[in-house]
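tool=predict chain=A
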Amino acid sequence: MHLVRFNYSPYGDLFNLQRTVNRWLDSTFNRNWSDDAENTMSFVPPVDVRETAEAIEFKAELPGFEKDQIDIRVDAGTLIISGERKFENNADTDDYHRIERAYGRFQRVFTLPSTVETDKITANLKNGVLSVSLPKSEKAKPRQIPVSVN
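tool=predict ok
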């Protein structure tokens, strides 16, 4: 008797293998080892994008960042969030047993719809979460159409 997985997909195992290899390659080859023994690793902070009736909102996890370490720009219909976390070179790196926190530069680029008002963007950094709000123009906001009866 053979056991068959419910909703079996022959490609599921290949996708799992691909994800595993990608994670391994990212963790291995995204490291920037410099000659001065400063361990740095580029990183990509996670970002949630949400659309409401009034705005498009971005929330990025940036723990330990100060506002002067973050740069937010709008250029040619794209939102660019970038920054840098420098390695804390307080002690000799030989004293470390393990360095897992990510250091270095990051950049996230998002294509924006033409319906946002780029001159009214607001940004706020609180408790390590960067919130960026891009209000929609009045013509893009949903509106109620009254139905008339003849």
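The first strand starts at residue 31 and ends at 33. Residues 31-41 have pLDDT under 50 and may be disordered.
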